[in-house]
Amino acid sequence: MTPTDENLDVLTRIADALERLAPPKNAEIDLTAHEGYIWVAEKSNFHPVDEIQRLPLESLQGIDQQKQKLLENTEYFAKGMRANNALLWGARGTGKSSVMKAVHGHLLEAGYNIGLVEIQREDLSDLPEVMERLARIERAFIIFCDDLAFEQDDISYKSLKAVLEGGLSGRPRNLVFYATSNRRHLMPRDMIENERSTAINRSEASEEKISLSDRFGLWIGFHNIDQDTYLEMIRWYIDYYKIPVSYDIARQDSLTWAIGRGNRSGRTAFQYILNLAMQHGVKI
After folding, report:
1. Which is nearest to 181 in space by CA: 212, 226, 142, 227?
2. 23 pLDDT band (50/70/90 cuts)?
3. Contact 121, 186 (CB under 8 A)
4. Which is nearest to 183 in space by CA: 107, 91, 113, 283?
5. Is the distance from CB of 240 to CB of 59 less than 8 angstroms?
6. Of 132, 160, 193, 254, which one is least surrounded by beta carbons within 10 A?
7. Are the beta carbons of 144 and 100 closer than 8 angstroms?
8. Which of 200, 212, 253 is nearest to 230 (CA)?
């Protein structure tokens, strides 16, 4: 073997070793084949979800107006029309993420080809890449971020503002962005006040913060429910899941359950029903 051959052999073995050490390339995910996807930032790829955990749309009680608004916007979008980005805001446990997933499932059952993509708040810097990749697909997508909020010194909201409108090219027609948040303006009041107090033009600083919410053309508020609505939820669930228990017994028991958790909400009602179903051997 000549010196040149020896060098080539060494280089070949080094190249083979490096190839074995290198992480495998991400498999190309079929973005038309699954109900939903989760964006995995570490892999810069989508993780498919074939069965999204959701409740039937009709099972979400006490939020009829909210359901109707979101359903109308999403169905219009699923038909190929331009629709509003939506911000679902309000107290915890009031059904914000549940109604979003339920609306998506309802439209799938109605025959619409619409995908759901979840992205975590801490991965919003990847949103331009996510949108660019989804824009190539002949399918409508809801990009969904749960529990969206920004804290002091967090400037990632500026990136979100830019991509929601899409800059010069505009937002791709097959994409809409939905988010849930406990805050209507997505930021704590002291953060807005701090920007106002330190700015040269205070009104412009305040507008800079609040204008993030303005990128969502549809605002849907969710609020804590009264006792009568809470009990109507309990009655509906008992009938729907055919739980063999007297409503009179469940009524007092469910009120005690809510007191123990310090609130009445759709989440509290469903958690009680899960416990009740378990006690009576009913599969939900």
Report:
1. 212
2. very low
3. no
4. 91
5. yes
6. 132
7. yes
8. 253
Nearest to 116 by CA among 42, 29, 171, 178: 178
Which amino acid, 7?
A: N
Q: What is the pTM of this model?
A: 0.79
State the Cα–Cα distance between residues 39 and 282, nearest whole angstrom. 35
Report the half-sphere exposure of 113 (CA within 13 A, side-chain side). 8
Q: Which residue has the tokens 């009041």?
A: 189
| Cα–Cα distance for residue pair 270/95, rounded to 1 Å | 10
Helix, strand, or coil here: 76?
helix
**83 close to 77: Cβ distance less than 8 angstroms:** yes
Name the nearest CA neighbour of 265 among 221, 220, 234, 241. Answer: 234
β-pairing verdict for 175-181 and 218-222? unpaired
Which tokens belong to 1?
A: 């073997």
pLDDT for 161-220, tens place per residue? 777 766 656 789 999 999 999 877 776 555 545 554 554 455 555 555 556 777 889 999
Structure tokens that stand for 83 in this block: 């629709």
The end-to-end CA distance of the chain, in Å, is 72
Instruction: Name which of 262, 267, 260 is nearest 230 in CA terms.
Output: 267
The residue with tokens 């939900």 is 284
Rg (CA), the chain: 24
Exposure string for 145-165, b = 16+ CB within 10 A, e = fewer: bbebbbeeeeeebeebeebbe
Give 127-159 pLDDT, tens digit per residue.
Answer: 989 999 999 999 999 999 998 877 766 666 676
Sign of CA dihedral 247, 253, 259, 265: negative
Q: Tell me which amino acid residue 108 is.
A: L
